[in-house]
Each structure stands twice: as C-alpha cells, then as structure tokens.
Design brief:
Blueprint lengths: L1 H10 L15 H4 L1 H24 L3 H17 L11 H4 L2 H12 L3 H14 L4 H18 L2 H16 L5 H17 L3 H14 L4 H13 L3 H14 L4 H13 L4 H14 L7 H13 L3 H13 L22 E2 L1 H4 L2 H9 L1 H10 L9 E2 L5 E3 L2 E8 L2 E2 L1 H4 L3 H7 L3 H4 L5 E7 L4 E5 L6 E9 L4 E5 L2 E3 L6 E4 L5 E5 L5 E9 L5 H6 L4
Antiparallel strand pairs: 1-11, 2-4, 3-7, 4-5, 4-6, 6-13, 7-12, 8-11, 8-13, 9-10, 9-12
Helix pairs in contact: 6-7, 6-8, 7-8, 8-9, 9-10, 10-11, 11-12, 12-13, 13-14, 14-15, 14-16, 15-16, 16-17
C-alpha cells in the first residue's frame, strides 16, 4: 500500500510521456501571471491615453470621478453644499466653489467667467448652470438689464431640464425662475413653472402660495383661490395663505364676513408676507362695510403705527415720501390757480358738453366699476386716463379737451384722470382712499342741486356751481347724495406740486 501511494505522489513529479522527472520551475515562470497582468494593464493604459488624446478627455476628471464613485457616500456627508451638489458636480466642486466665492464677494464679471467656463466644459452641470443663472440675475439687477434678466431665466430653466438635479437645488432654481418670470412680466409662465413645481413638491404649502400669487397677478382668480386652499389643507395655520384667500373672498366674492375672518387670522399670525398694507386696507374696508367703524379705525391706526399707511386717514399704497399731506387744498396751494381759473371761467361751456353726453341713446357715460358704491346710480365719462387722451371721447367734448390741453399738470398726469362724473339721488359711496399721494384731485361744480355732500378725513363740504372743490383723494373720503336731482362735476387730477419733473417722468402710471 505504501508503495502505491509513493507511485501516485511521484506521478505528479514526472512527465508521463517521456518518463523523465520535471525540472523545478524558474523564477520567470513563477512570476508569469503577474507579468501578464502588468502587460494587460499597460496596454489598457496606453489605449486610455490614446483615447484621451483623440477625444480631449481630462484624465484628472476621470480620476476624480472614479475616486468620487468610491468615496462619495463618505466624503459628501461633510461637504457644506452636499444637498445641492450632484455626484458629477462633486468631482468639480473646487471650480464651483471658486465661482460661488467670486459671486459672494460681488466679483460678478469674474464669477461669470468661471461659470461660463464650467458650463462650456460640463454643459449638464446643475450647479454650474445654477451659478451662471444667479450671476446673470445679479448682473441684471446691478445694470438694470432685461437682456441679463432673460439670460438668467434661460439658465434657471436649463437647471430644471437636467436629469440628475439634487432636490434642494431644483427647488431653489424653480422658485427663483418663477420669481424672475413674474418680475419680467411673464406671470403666466411663472404660473406654469410653479404648476410643475407643485407636482414635484405637492406637500409644499410655500409653493402652493407662490402659485396662488402668480395666478392672482395673471388675473386668474379661480386657480389662485384653489392654490391658497391647497396651501391651507397642507398647513391650516398658514397666515400667508389666509390673507390672500381672505383678499379674494372680500374683493372678488364681495363676502365681507368670511373675508374679515381670514384677513384677521392671517394678519394676527404675523407670518412673513402678512404685514402688507393691502391686507390691512381691505380688512378695515370690509369692517366699515358691515358698520364696524371703530374696529376699522383700530386696524387703520395699527397700519399707520407700523408704517403701512401715512396716517389712519391717508391710506394710499403707492406713495412718494415727504410730500405734504392735507385733506383740503386751495387753488393757490396747488400752484395751478392760473389753469384752474381758466376752467372756472369756462364752466358753462364744459357743463353743456357734459350734459350732451347724458342722452340715453347717444350718451357715453359708463357705470362706476370699482365697487365703491353701497347703492345708487353713479356714472363717469372719461376724457384722459394715465396721461393719455381718449381721442374718441374728446371728439364728443372738444371744447373741454382743448381747455385741458392747456393744463400740463393735468393733461400729463400719469397717475390720474380727467372725467365727467354724474351722480343720481340716493347714492352712497363707501369710505375709500385713492391709490397714490402723488396727485391732487379737483371737482369743478357743473350741476349742483341741494343734497349732495362729501367728507374728506373728518370734515364735510359740498360743491358750488362754477367753482373748484379741491382735496387730496389719498385721504379717506365718502359721498352721499340725498337730494332730488342729479349732480354733475368735472373731475381733474393734477400732479402734487412738490414732485420734481424727474419724478413725474419716471413714476409708474396708475
């Protein structure tokens, strides 16, 4: 048995064919597997180098990418911008951070070069595109350039179009894109952007609120209403959603009671965006319309106290600071007494042209449409609006318009109007304020029976035929007509006398 085992053992040391014992393998043959592996690796490396040269591939990027693949889960945890950095962007984070630092230091031209270089080399880099968008955004603000603004919008859109955008970065880019679209006047596009965002982040009340505002600006009241309701379903205590929904219910639905509840709750929440003159304005107005005047006055006093209104009575929202504010004015104080006197001297001519428009078939008086009447029939016939002549209407009152054309502070008042106003007996106009402190309003009495009266702030007056009644309509005013025949006046808005020519030329029309 022992001999058999020995023979089997020897069999492994012999060549069966020739019966000779094999020699001990040399060191070369012992290392052969290693040499072969090394040779293969060398060939692969040469091929990589050749390919890199042909296709202009950055080997350092390949190395970074391979290292990133192995260690991303460990190293990204400690990276401050990990939540907005994709796997591929992490490999070029040094370049991206350089761009961010330049932008932080307000070196915008330098930042633009860095991000442009990154995007040229890595056109699918989410952070590169976002950095470029933010740089264009800041340059647009600095240089007041629509071209830069539109470039920023385009780059923000590109971020959203990429496949591997980190969730936090997508959120930032989408929100800012909608904001910039709104600023550019593209509110419908902003709403489309936010519609897509709410599909991706359906539980974000913030985005639903943004969508609601975009729809409001675009005049899409029903979609706006639904967006704010959705925000409140997610967060029933969302004050921002409450004030906006209350605004819609009060102004669109004319439902003062429900509007008051939402506006009060929203304002009291003190959430960001609720400290806004519009909400205090409409809350007080709604309270006045249900005869809660003392509560309304408290709202207005609070609004004035925190700087939303110029005073509890002067509640215009589009103002120029430091202008003299007083309820009643004289012709001399307006510095337009020369032109006002010209109109007073021709008041009967103006009256006759106004009366001619009262014809039931040929007349062009239109109902007041700002929801300022509690009751009664109140109509207007407009000759000038926002500094522009209504040519068709002026052809029906040519003598009046010829007189107004001689009055530059009225003819060119882009924040005012010139119009005939006819009020029938029984009218009550709710207390209200005009939108701006930049104009002074004058009423030329044309047909004045007994019975009509006007309150401005806390003083009441009435009209006189052939004379001007002049007041600042940014102060609260209220009108009653308790007579038995119609009242006719010509309303003429003129620039506030303390405005500079530069201000008059640049103020946005209202």
């Amino acid at each position: 048995m022992s001999n058999l085992k020995q023979r089997k053992k020897n069999h492994h040391l012999e060549h069966k064919d020739d019966g000779r014992k094999s020699k001990k393998p040399s060191a070369f043959y012992q290392a052969k597997p290693f040499v072969i592996s090394l040779a293969i690796a060398t060939v692969i490396l040469l091929l990589i180098l050749l390919g890199a040269n042909i296709y202009n591939i950055n080997l350092l990027d390949i190395y970074r990418y391979s290292v990133t693949k192995q260690s991303t889960s460990e190293s990204k945890v400690s990276y401050p911008k990990a939540s907005i950095t994709s796997v591929n962007d992490y490999s070029i984070r040094g370049l991206l951070d350089d761009g961010d630092q330049s932008m932080k230091e307000n070196k915008l031209d330098e930042a633009l070069k860095i991000y442009s270089s990154i995007v040229k080399k890595y056109p699918s880099s989410p952070r590169g595109l976002y950095g470029l968008a933010v740089t264009f955004d800041k340059l647009a603000e600095k240089r007041r350039s629509n071209d830069y603004l539109e470039n920023s919008i385009a780059e923000y859109q590109k971020v959203l179009n990429q496949k591997d955008v980190p969730k936090d970065l997508y959120f930032l880019a989408g929100k800012r894109l909608a904001n910039r679209q709104t600023f550019r006047g593209w509110s419908s596009k902003a709403a489309e952007t936010l519609e897509k965002m709410t599909q991706k982040y359906s539980n974000s009340s913030e985005l639903w609120n943004e969508l609601g505002v975009s729809n409001l600006i675009a005049g899409r009241n029903d979609p706006a209403r639904q967006a704010f309701k959705q925000a409140l379903e997610i967060n029933p205590n969302d004050g921002y959603a409450k004030v906006h929904l209350g605004f819609i219910i009060k102004t669109i639905d004319l439902n003062n009671e429900d509007g008051i509840k939402l506006l009060q709750d929203g304002i009291q929440s003190k959430h960001p965006g609720t400290k806004d003159g519009r909400f205090y304005f409409h809350l007080g107005d709604a309270l006045q319309r249900i005869d809660k005047n003392n509560e309304a006055l408290e709202v207005y006093e609070e609004g004035a106290k925190i700087g939303l209104f110029l005073s509890k009575y002067q509640r215009s929202l589009y103002n120029v600071n430091s202008l003299t504010g007083q309820p009643w004015w004289t012709p001399e104080q307006t510095k337009n007494n020369k032109y006002l006197k010209l109109l007073e001297d021709n008041w009967k001519v103006i009256r006759d042209e106004g009366l001619a428009q009262m014809d039931a078939e040929k007349g062009t008086f239109l109902p007041e449409e700002e929801n300022l009447r509690e009751k009664g029939d109140w109509k207007q016939f407009t000759l000038y609006q926002q500094g522009k002549k209504n040519v068709a209407n002026c052809m029906k009152a040519p003598k009046t318009c010829k007189l107004i054309d001689q009055f530059p502070e009225a003819r060119g008042c882009t924040r005012g109007q010139v119009k005939f106003s006819i009020m029938q007996p029984g009218v009550h106009v709710w207390p209200h304020c005009g939108p701006t402190n930049c104009r002074i309003r004058s009423h030329l009495g044309l047909v004045i029976p007994k019975g009509p009266r006007i309150r401005v702030a806390n003083e009441q007056r009435t009209w006189t035929e052939g004379q001007f009644l002049i007041f600042d309509d940014s102060f609260e005013h209220e009108v009653w007509h308790e007579g038995d025949s119609f009242r006719l006046v010509l309303i003429i808005d003129m620039w506030h006398p303390e405005l500079t020519n530069q201000q008059k030329a640049t103020l946005a029309p209202i």
